[in-house]
Design a protein that fits this description.
5 strands; 2 helices; alpha+beta; single chain
Length: 112
């Protein structure tokens, strides 16, 4: 099977309901785009993926490899929000890759 067509399955929790979302490498650039295309989230990702507005915050568990790395904008934005939970991430900064396969992503909403 071609690596680009290898299925990536992510469990998405929104409003207490869990759903498995399946995608492929290069189908979406980042997790924010996948979430926006899968479910409509009002005011989600207002800065368009620059890692500065914190409106696409999620709780991500089970990330592997490079998906665990935070770039400077993401770390600074989460730090400004005063959050210390290592599972809190900006979905715009998590690229779609096999490192997401099996991850559990919870939409945090107004929780943070």
């Amino acid at each position: 099977m071609n690596d680009e067509r290898k299925e990536i399955a992510i469990t998405l929790i929104n409003a207490g309901e869990a759903h498995v979302v399946k995608t492929y490498l290069h189908q979406y650039r980042n997790l924010m785009m996948l979430l926006n295309n899968t479910i409509y989230l009002e005011n989600f990702g207002e800065c368009g993926g620059q890692g500065r507005c914190a409106t696409c915050m999620v709780k991500a568990v089970g990330l592997k490899g490079n998906a665990n790395s935070m770039e400077r904008n993401e770390a600074a934005t989460i730090g400004k929000a005063g959050l210390a939970d290592e599972a809190v991430r900006l979905s715009c900064q998590i690229l779609i890759s096999e490192d997401l396969n099996g991850a559990v992503i919870e939409i945090t909403g107004d929780e943070y």
